[in-house]
Amino acid sequence: MECKIYPFNTLGQYKYADIIARYDGKWIFSKHKARDTWETQGGHIEGGETPTDTAKREHFEEAGAIDFDPAPLCDYSVRGQFNGKDISGNGRAYLAEVRKLGNLPPESEMQQICLLDTLPENLTYPELIRNLFRAAEKHLESEATV
Known about the structure:
Elements: E1 2-6, E2 14-23, E3 26-32, E4 38-39, E5 41-44, H1 51-63, E6 65-68, E7 71-79, E8 81-82, E9 85-86, E10 89-101, E11 110-116, H2 126-144
Parallel strand pairs: 2-10
Antiparallel strand pairs: 1-7, 2-3, 2-5, 3-4, 3-11, 6-10, 7-10, 8-9
């Protein structure tokens, strides 16, 4: 899979929305019920949703996040396959500090979440997640110097 990062709101034709989030100073990762890897929260934009709507919905469904405000982070494009499926498309990513986490909803595709200081080694979409985290860390560093 190939992934490229772009400034927020530059690509258009968005297929995905993702959220990179922290809670109590730690990064939030989710483990899907059908996989043994860790991922950030995100997914397909459904009919009638904006990318922001999707990021909020996915963050609740996949991490139990209740109180947070997603902030623009970046756009990205992915090209390639995952588990034999073409996942090529554009996405919009957000960054959030979560103020309140609840339980995973019963209908969640995720089996658990974890809070970590760094990226885990076993990632579902390694190139995408590493690129999004570099963008998040760069954004947070620039905020700290302002």
